Request: fold
Amino acid sequence: MAPVQEVDIATFAPAWESGAPVLDVREDHEFVQAHVPGAQWIPLADLPARVAEVPSDATVYVICASGNRSKRGAEILEESGRRAVSVAGGTKGWIRAGHPAESG
Reply:
């Protein structure tokens, strides 16, 4: 299988603004602290059993804290026939770049 495509924050931001689906694969305590507004949350360990909950009609942007778990999450989605890319830099990079975040 081809390696998972990675996009940087500058590429992800306009996709997010246009309503692209975002999947956060971090643990609950991380998600509660801060996440990309509107992100769907499924911890990476739960994703194989919950792939059906992820949109299948658009490219899904998978995000974690810094970009490691999101690569694996995107692989899981790709293996299930969905289109997915990993967001390099993750939520930390998103916030550092000055983009909005939600908590809770």
